Amino acid sequence: MPKETSTQKDDPEVVGHLEELRKQLIKSAVVFTIFFIIVLSTIHFWFPYIIKDHNLLILSPFDVLSFYMTISLALSIGLSIPFICHFIYQFVKPGLTKRESKFFSLYTPLIFLLFLCGLSFGYFVINPISYSFLTSLGAIHFDVMISAREYARFLLFTTIPIALIFELPIVALFLATIEVLTVETLKKTRKWSYVILAILSALITPPDFISQIIVLIPMILLYEISIRIVARVEKKRTLRHEMEETEVT
After folding, report:
1. Which residues, 6 or more positions from 39, have their beta carbon under 8 angstroms from its beta carbon?
2. Does residue 57 contact residue 147 with C-beta atoms inside 8 Å?
3. Are 99 and 143 in contact (CB under 8 A)?
4. DSSP letter at 3?
5. Which of 72, 158, 205, 234 could form a disulfide with 40 if both were Cys (CB 3.0 to 4.6 A apart)?
6. Nearest Cα to 116, choosing from 78, 66, 151?
7. Helix, strand or coil for residue 151?
8. Contact 206, 134 (CB under 8 A)
């Protein structure tokens, strides 16, 4: 009788992981679908907050569908993020260390809160300033007419990337928790990091200097906050090690 190979022994474990992944993906898809149906069916409620009294043009019948679908997809993804993060955590939890598991369980709500803060900053600050500046600039030589499809793209472009950037302190906190990132590294690379942040702000904002500066300032502040957070994590780790050494002696 042939011996059972190691691959065959691992099969039940691999199948179990795949089954758990499939379960969490199905949950995520169901939550997203529910939110999408709710948002799409109530699009007229969201509509005034989206167009902000701008006069938008529809260039073809398909533009209406494209506008509604784009906005509904974006809102559904935003509303689904907390649930999807929870489902991802449930999948990876068995493979996490105690420290990593504690991190995700404690800071998942903060991840969503920072995402909302970034989204609000983009919606209430960057989007109106950029839109006003660019349309005023265009009005000097052109008749400004904005299509609904292009405005939807512009709205997402001035909100979603900024919301993701606001997650920088959480990323720094996680890397410091698993001892990958240190204060010394952040301080040594500060100047180059500012240059990278300036380039990034130019890439994720409309091509106007005002918007780039408005985005760059909070990015630099977030970087400095990340340094303070990492320093605090290192201080706590040092104190914990000292207490452990004291107990041993």
Report:
1. 46, 71, 72, 75, 76, 79
2. yes
3. no
4. P
5. 72
6. 78
7. helix
8. yes
Q: Which residues contact 54 (CB under 8 A, 6 or more apart)?
A: 131, 146, 151
pLDDT-derived band at 249 (thresholds 50, 70, 90) equals low
Residue 41: which of 71, 82, 62 has the closest Cα? 71
Adjacent-strand bridge partners of 57: 147
Please tell me the distance from the alpha carbon of residue 24 to that of residue 9, in angstroms, as a whole number.
Answer: 24
Torsion of CA 205, 227, 117, 39, to 10 degrees: 80
Amino acid at site 128 = P
Residue appearing with tokens 């398909």 = 62
* Closest by CA position to 126, among listed 219, 54, 204, 211: 211
Alpha-carbon distance of 63 to 57, in angstroms, equals 9
Cβ atoms 222, 169 nearer than 8 A = yes
144: left (phi over 0), alpha (psi -120 to 50) or beta: beta
Cβ burial, residue 109 (10 Å; 0-12/13-18/19+) = exposed
Q: Are strands 56-57 and 146-147 parallel, antiparallel or unpaired?
A: parallel
Residue 39: how many CB atoms within 10 A of its CB?
Answer: 20
